[in-house]
């Protein structure tokens, strides 16, 4: 990062750098002032990584320099409110810099890491904006080829969704990285036709959008594995199972995740369905529903359960069929095999604890002995428990809530895939982020414990809660939370209520936790 010091932060005699916004694998983005027009801009500096010539200039044919120029040219072709605007491209000592509009906000990936998954309405809003951006790009012959949460910015003041980073974009008629045999993009978000060495078109970007929607809704993609080889196998061969949180938007998610690009849902149809959801709260026969996303035997017309021709063609995946660049990468990492398991969750980097082995699936129902003042519930999401009388259920993916009549006390259950690190790491990560998420966060403790023989962790804290519901009173809330791994899933149960009635809240929590048992979810095959 010597450029900043060498030029006293002044680029091309015009753009004065004032601070680093972010750093990625290919470049660093700086906040800067355009001293000629007196406006704030973002300036992207290329990482040379030792590839420059002795004088610091770009050698002929250096792909990193080509990438910067291609990014600028691709972005310059598109004028759209949901695409980052290009202002200028300048060269300082032979090194190219891209000058763009400054979007004050954060990337979708940062939001997901800090606050967990967003709801279906916000996901639909983001997807509609990206569909509009992609439609504009595709009309100009530009394929983005790297749609993923880090490349989606959310403007703080307006909520505007902005697609950025066209560094691996393909422009119609121009030579691209992929034509030299190298793989570009992010494998977890890459369409199977590109993974298997086939040609890519606008439908490939739409596949990536479908993957991004899954990540926004649940914090994890259907193709996350713990090796690159596992990701490759999942994208081109494994059965696609959207996360439970995708239930309200399932027809669109399934339509975009159709492996055959000829059958994949188009941008117009996806936008029509998503706008219908925002207007009515449901897509056709789909809706918020009483439980997790179903996986019907027939699937949607866009993503049938049976294997498509494309799936048959790539059923046996070999390195010779994935393109030279990815094949080399797999070989270098020793990750040519398939496998892996999903990762990432809503409340931080939760982890897997070994726990006692589970040798059989849970029952379809389970008896629950409810003490006085409580009643037994068999929840379709896959659990049974005793709930305080008068509490009503609300499914708000990925959480199931039960609210008191005044909505000031609520209990929640989250069921998700286990993660590296264990339950204790899960709640410690959540606790570390809590001061930014919970105003007045205080009186907090996290400790390791057990729940019915399974390694677990508990978390208690107080915070200054917002007003809840119509006529609800604000004030301090006390939260009791326990997390554990069981039967191949991670369970988290918490109860929050007014600090002034902490004893009652703790009583509810103790009853809920004591009576909680796994049952078979109604959506199981």
TrEMBL record:
Matches recorded under InterPro entries = Kinase-like_dom_sf, Prot_kinase_dom, Protein_kinase_ATP_BS, Ser/Thr_kinase_AS
GO molecular function annotation: ATP binding; protein serine/threonine kinase activity
> Where is each Protein kinase domain found?
15-278
- The annotated regions of Pro residues compositional bias extend over 289-299
Q: Which superkingdom, per the lineage? A: Bacteria
Q: Per the UniProt record, which residue ranges are transmembrane?
A: 309-331
Record key words, sorted: ATP-binding, Kinase, Membrane, Nucleotide-binding, Serine/threonine-protein kinase, Transferase, Transmembrane, Transmembrane helix
Pfam families for the chain:
Pkinase
Residues covered by region (Disordered): 282-301, 337-368
Binding site residues for ATP: 44
Signal peptide annotation: none
- The EC number(s) given in the record are 2.7.11.1
In terms of PANTHER family, this protein maps to: MITOGEN-ACTIVATED PROTEIN KINASE KINASE KINASE 20-RELATED, SERINE_THREONINE-PROTEIN KINASE NEKL-3
What's the protein name? non-specific serine/threonine protein kinase
Per the UniProt record, the source organism is Streptomyces klenkii
Q: What is the lineage of its organism?
A: Bacteria, Bacillati, Actinomycetota, Actinomycetes, Kitasatosporales
């Amino acid at each position: 990062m010597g450029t900043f010091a060498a030029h006293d932060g002044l680029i091309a005699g015009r753009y004065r750098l004032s601070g680093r916004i972010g750093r990625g694998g290919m470049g660093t983005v700086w906040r800067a002032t355009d001293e000629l027009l007196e406006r704030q801009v973002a300036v992207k500096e290329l990482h040379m990584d030792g590839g420059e010539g002795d004088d610091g200039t770009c050698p002929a044919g250096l792909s990193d320099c080509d990438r910067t120029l291609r990014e600028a040219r691709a972005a310059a072709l598109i004028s759209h409110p949901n695409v980052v605007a290009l202002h200028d491209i300048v060269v300082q000592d032979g090194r190219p810099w891209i000058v763009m509009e400054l979007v004050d906000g954060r990337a979708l990936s940062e939001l997901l890491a800090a606050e967990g998954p967003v709801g279906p309405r916000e996901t639909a809003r983001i997807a509609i904006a990206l569909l509009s951006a992609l439609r504009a790009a595709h009309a100009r012959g530009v394929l983005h080829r790297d749609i993923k949460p880090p490349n989606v910015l959310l403007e703080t003041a307006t909520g505007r969704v902005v697609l950025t980073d066209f560094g691996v974009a393909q422009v119609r008629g121009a030579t691209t990285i992929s034509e030299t045999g190298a793989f570009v993009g992010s494998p977890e978000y890459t369409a199977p036709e590109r993974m298997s060495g086939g040609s890519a078109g606008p439908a490939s970007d739409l596949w990536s959008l479908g993957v991004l929607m899954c990540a926004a809704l649940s914090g994890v993609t259907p193709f996350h594995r713990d090796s690159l080889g596992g990701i490759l196998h999942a994208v081109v061969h494994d059965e696609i199972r959207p996360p439970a949180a995708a239930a309200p938007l399932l027809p669109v998610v399934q339509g975009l995740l159709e492996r055959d690009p000829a059958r994949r849902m188009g941008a117009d149809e996806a936008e029509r369905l998503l706008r219908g959801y925002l207007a009515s709260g449901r897509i056709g026969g789909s809706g918020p529903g009483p439980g997790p996303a179903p996986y019907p035997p027939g699937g949607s017309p866009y993503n049938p359960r049976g294997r498509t021709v494309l799936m048959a063609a790539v059923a046996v995946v070999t390195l010779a069929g994935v393109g030279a660049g990815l094949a080399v990468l797999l070989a270098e990492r020793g990750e040519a095999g398939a496998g892996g398991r999903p990762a990432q969750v809503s409340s931080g980097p939760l982890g897997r604890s070994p726990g006692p082995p589970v040798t059989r699936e849970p029952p379809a129902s389970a008896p629950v002995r409810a003490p006085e003042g409580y009643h037994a519930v068999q929840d379709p999401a896959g659990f049974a428990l005793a709930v305080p009388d008068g509490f009503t259920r609300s499914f708000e993916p990925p959480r199931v809530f039960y609210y008191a009549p005044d909505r000031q006390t609520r209990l929640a259950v989250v069921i998700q895939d286990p993660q590296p690190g264990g339950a204790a790491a899960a709640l410690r990560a959540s606790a570390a982020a809590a001061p930014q998420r919970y105003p007045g966060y205080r009186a907090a403790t996290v400790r390791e414990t057990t729940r019915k023989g399974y390694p677990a962790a508990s978390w208690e804290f107080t915070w200054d809660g917002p007003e809840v519901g119509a006529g609800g009173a604000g004030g301090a809330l006390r939260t009791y939370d326990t997390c554990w791994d069981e039967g191949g899933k991670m369970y988290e149960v918490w109860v929050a209520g007014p600090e002034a009635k902490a004893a009652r809240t703790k009583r509810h929590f103790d009853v809920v936790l004591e009576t909680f048992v796994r049952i078979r979810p109604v959506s199981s095959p």
